Write a sequence for this structure.
């Protein structure tokens, strides 16, 4: 059971905007930056968003991140079939003195 | 090209030991913290351990503390994970990942290897 809570599944249709959530507490999201990863089937994770809202070079601006209090969100606009993947949030936890991942959200493009 | 290549995985009996290695290329290895992340079959990502760029600071998940040791050799661009007292629940693909900064902070890894599989079974 992760200290970061993500809904296990989400879905959307091509072209739609979807938002994935990540809920934590004051010891993790509330006091540290949040990062998001995309994992396509059978591949290693890929950094999508770091430090709440920064995009690594090469990541389309369809992906955006935000944080408010003890929750964070990843928004995907103009949903495409290739966005079908597992998405994980991650941050540092001051109480655990270590890093934590959310349980992940499986995004299905209908 | 920036690259991470893991090795050392395999089948080991419960209670046994295994040493994983990760060879880095294409960047100044000592400038970045490094991390091991694992993923059990069909499950999510789990942070295992991290080491700062200078190797002066190490951090472990509670699930592996006292059994696993992370280390690095900056002269050889190599990251290692010594795994002792292995349990069935340690069965997973182990990924080596590069942090975006030298110190261990947040949880941002911009480069990942393809992983090496560890199976703990009798």
């Amino acid at each position: 059971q992760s200290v970061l809570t993500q809904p296990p599944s989400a879905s959307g249709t091509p072209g739609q905007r979807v938002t994935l959530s990540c809920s934590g507490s004051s010891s993790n999201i509330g006091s540290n930056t949040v990062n998001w990863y995309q994992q396509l089937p059978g591949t290693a994770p890929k950094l999508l968003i770091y430090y709440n809202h920064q995009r690594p070079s090469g990541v389309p601006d369809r992906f955006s991140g935000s944080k408010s209090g003890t929750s964070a969100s990843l928004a995907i606009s103009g949903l495409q079939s290739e966005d079908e993947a597992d998405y994980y949030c991650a941050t540092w936890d001051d109480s655990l003195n270590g890093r934590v991942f959310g349980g992940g959200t499986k995004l299905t493009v209908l | 090209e920036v690259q991470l290549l893991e090795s050392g995985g395999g089948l080991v009996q419960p209670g046994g030991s295994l040493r994983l290695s990760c060879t880095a290329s294409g960047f100044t290895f000592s400038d970045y913290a490094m991390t091991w992340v694992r993923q059990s079959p069909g499950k999510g990502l789990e942070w295992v351990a991290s080491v700062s760029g200078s190797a002066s600071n190490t951090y472990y998940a509670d699930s592996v503390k006292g059994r696993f040791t992370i280390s690095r050799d900056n002269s050889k661009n190599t990251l290692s994970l010594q795994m002792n007292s292995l349990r069935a629940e340690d069965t997973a693909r182990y990924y080596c990942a590069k942090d975006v900064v030298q110190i261990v902070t947040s949880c941002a890894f911009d480069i990942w290897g393809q992983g090496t599989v560890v199976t703990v079974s009798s």
Chain A touches chain B at residues 2, 32-35, 37, 39, 44-47, 50-51, 56, 86, 88, 90-92, 96-104 (CB under 8 Å). The first strand of chain A starts at residue 9 and ends at 12. Chain A has no helices and nine strands. Chain A has a mean pLDDT of 97.
